[in-house]
Amino acid sequence: MKTIGLFRFLPALTSFSIAFFIIFSPALKAQAPDDSLSTTSPDALAVSIAPPTSLVVFDYKYDDGEALELTWVPSVDDLPVVGKVTGYELYRSDNGGEFYKITELIPGSNNFRDEDLSTGVNYVYYIVALSADARAASVKTEAIQTHREWLNFNLKYLFLIALIISASVIYFIETARRGKKLFVRKIAGLEAVDDAIGQATEMGRSILFIPGINDMDEVQTLAAITILGRVSRVVADYDTKIHMPVSRSLVMTAARETIKASYMAAGRPDAYSDDMVHYVTDEQFGYVAAVDAIMVREKPATIFLLGSFFAESLILAETGNSVGAIQIAGTARPAQLPFFIAACDFTLIGEELFAASAYLSGEPKQLGSLKGQDVGKALAMLVILIAVILATISEIRPLETVRYVLDFLIQVFTIKT
Amino acid sequence: MKKTTLIIMAGVTVLFLLSWIIKALALEGMQEDYIKKAFLVTFSAFLTLSILSFLYRDNPFYKFAEHLFVGVSAAFWMSMGFWSTIVGNLIPRLSQNLSVFFKVHYIPGDFNFRFYIPVILGLLLLMRLSRNYGWISRWSLAFIVGTTAGLNFIRYLRSDFIKQISATFVPLLVDWQGTGHFFSNLDLSASGQLVMMLANWTIFLGVMSGIIYFFFSKEHTGMFGRASRFGIWVLMITFGASFGYTVMGRISLLVGRITFLFRDWLGFNI
Fold it and tell me: Where do the domains of chain B lie?
């Protein structure tokens, strides 16, 4: 009986629905975001998908006032395999202006960081879910401005670690300055430097110094130039010839200054010549072709390959080996170290390159710096040991305190940007 | 010049011309500028063979290729530095008159006084050319070295120190449910538990012994020395694996060059 009753009223219900739709459709339109509203609103009415909800925008913390972070709950029709949503479009209005699309996002997206913004501008956003035949817009956000922060507290632990290492470096430099002797273990490759230069002098042949192919903004090049200071000092004392082809103009300038200073310190400024260091080319393999030729034609007695090297490392080391030179190499590039180890007589591995200058010079500043770095290494070993023990314990028996301390250590050593 | 050298050079020149003609005939009808294309392919092959001839010994052909390469590349990088960095990037942001002079588009919105800092530092570097005021160029160098050291301190502290430490926070016993359970369920293909444990032990011991090797404040003797020796073993095994991997990459470069010689130059269908 009830079913028959409903059917009786069906035509009336349909008419009423159509009338309702015609009367109130302008009001419904007004509720949808404008703009572009001309494009989104009609679609929003023809909704065959649900819009994203809970769109929230907030200032991105600890930046220079350049970013806002947006999060939302994806459309309920945004499902992994059977979902109708094909993507999202994010719209923005600046200072009450027209909305315009700032990005397109893939299905499943629920956050976006809007970057390159300016302070003092009011930003309003809304997001549109897209399907093959429909669009559904979220409500608009409140107007928001970006804010600048003076300090980035995400980096507080990085600052603390840097502070500890810097403090230990300063402490050891001061200790060395006060005259306390600081112990540094022997580094095999460096013991050979004086002998290699001496041999070149005896043979009456030159020394070739290759500082890698990077510019002065590379720490390894700086380390190479520092070692050059010591090498050129011995060269000046022994009156040996030194030849240094470089691939960067700034390295040429720095190297000339360094060698000149060494010759002046040795009391032989007249023996210095700018021709000792000369520029070849910035091109990697052009430089290699020229240096190989220099090795074969000049047949230097000693070759230093110290600095930042790339694919040219084996070509240079192998050519140097073929002319019978004593080769002392050093780089912190793990991919190139095997070639130096295979083809050179002595190789400074990684940090030994940086320790070399301190070891060779014996200056308080450099020795103190080396000691300070060792404090950092000791600290690293201690932290690793504690964390590994805690991680192992928590695998065997989940204890809350152990997990808490481990999480804290992970937090300290996970740097957010 | 020796007579033999002259004969060899004449022979190579004849071969070069022959190759050019044959290549041009082969390309005729297939490409519009076939003579130019044939010359470029032949010249590329000649330069490739000239560089490879260094494997035999130093010779005039290698010298020619070397000097051409160095000269062209040095000039290229210099003009790139001037036209791309100074004219292309700096002048459009600094001066409208200079932009007009160099016929580049002036960008008034990008003007910033900060751009004068590199200009001044660059000019100071050029003071090296003066005998009396050459020392001023050291200021620019000091600026570069100082900023490099400062910026890289944080960069390396983050990537080479802190991230490496946190990556070593591994449990030495993975998914541990007791010794008896472990031995009764020793099925590598099923769980990989043993493999994971071995990997974690390798990471832990490798990192610890590696750090010990690079510890300079203590003599490497006794237990410390043995740990350091283990560290250098770990490093050498790593380098060995890296050596093989990189050599394979270089072989592919050689294959690329040989493919050029045989396919593009000699016309073999490989």
Answer: 112-167, 170-265
Q: How far, in Å, CA of A107 to CA of A96, rounded?
A: 29
Better-scored residue on pLDDT, B212 or A81: B212
Q: Give me the residue from B158, B171, B175 closest to A391, CB to CB.
A: B171
Structure confidence by residue, pLDDT tens digits, B128-146: 888 899 889 889 989 988 9
CB contact under 8 A, A338 and B166: no
What is the C-alpha separation between B128 and B134, in angstroms, rounded?
Answer: 4
Taking the CA of residue B244 and the nearest CA in chain A, the distance in Å comes to 9
Give me B165's structure tokens: 């430490």
Distance CA A200, CA B40 (A): 44
Burial of A382 (0-12, 13-18, 19+ CB in 10 A): exposed
- 3-state SS, residue B28: strand
Dump pLDDT digits (tens) for A312-330: 999 999 999 999 999 999 9
pLDDT at A117 over 70: yes
Calpha distance A391→A357 (Å, rounded) = 39
In this structure, what DSSP letter does residue A182 have? P
The answer to whether the complex's ipTM is over 0.85 is yes
Tell me which chain A residue has its CA closest to the CA of residue B70: A286
CB atoms A158 and B162 under 8 Å = yes
Q: What is the pLDDT of residue A6?
A: 45
C-beta separation of B170 from B204 below 8 A = yes
Only one residue has tokens 């004086």, namely A194
Residue extents of the structural domains in chain A: 32-137, 182-362
Q: Give how far A103 is from chain B: nearest CA, Å.
A: 25
The distance of Cα B109 from the centroid of its chain, to the nearest Å, equals 36
CA distance A169 to A362: 15
Which tokens in the block code for residue A402?
């152990």
Is A182-362 in CATH node 3.40.50?
A: yes
Place of tokens 């932290």: A383
CB within 8 Å: B166 and A289: no
* Residues of chain A with C-beta less than 8 angstroms from the C-beta of B161: 161, 376, 380
Fold of A32-137: Immunoglobulin-like (2.60.40)
- d(C-alpha A236, C-alpha A269), whole Å: 9
